[in-house]
Amino acid sequence: MKKLGFLLFLVLMLGIASGTMLAQNVGDNSVFFTTYYANNVSAAAVPDATLRIVNDGDSTVNYEGTLYASIYVFDDSQELTECCSCAITADGLLSESVKNQLTTNPITGIKPPRGVIKVISSTVEADVTTNFAPNVPAPGLRAWATHVQSVRNVYPYGPAPYALTETALADSNLGTAEKSMLENLCYFDKLLSGHPCYCTPEDYDF
After folding, report:
1. Contact criterion met (CB below 8 Å) for 146 and 39
2. What is 31-193's CATH number?
3. Which residues sit opposite 105 in a β-bridge?
4. Could you give the CA distance from residue 126 to residue 108 in angstroms, rounded to a whole number?
């Protein structure tokens, strides 16, 4: 009788574990993410912020499971300053410096001290370095960003202590109009400046 009870207990636990695993496999189908950056200045005392994006490996778009992080960087006046589309293979990690890669070639020639970063998870390279192509959104990318916080909240940016916080990028709504606007702004940015943001190779850090 004790053996039967033990076997029933094992079957119950396996059923619970299987149900939990199945529930976890549902995942997050988000394709559009947003975050902010701040205190983005060249002063040595001010640390750099980072954007890190992971390909969760669940994509079946090609044999490598490659997805593209289409990145759009805005200043705090809602103007696009840079954009690029970076390849990330399955289980790969993309690491981007806000100071030296995402805001180093702004279209205005002035590095924005604060602004917004938007990311589309796409199956195609929506890049403007060669041929312009629209995004084909697909889930599979996950992203985090660090944020430079001024402890004393002073201006201008001096030797005051700065702290770093890190958050996941927020799942956001990608409407047809927003998608088209981002792609067209990126295209015009290429025509006007010719300087997209820089993609770090997967096996390197910035």
Report:
1. no
2. 2.60.290.11
3. none
4. 22
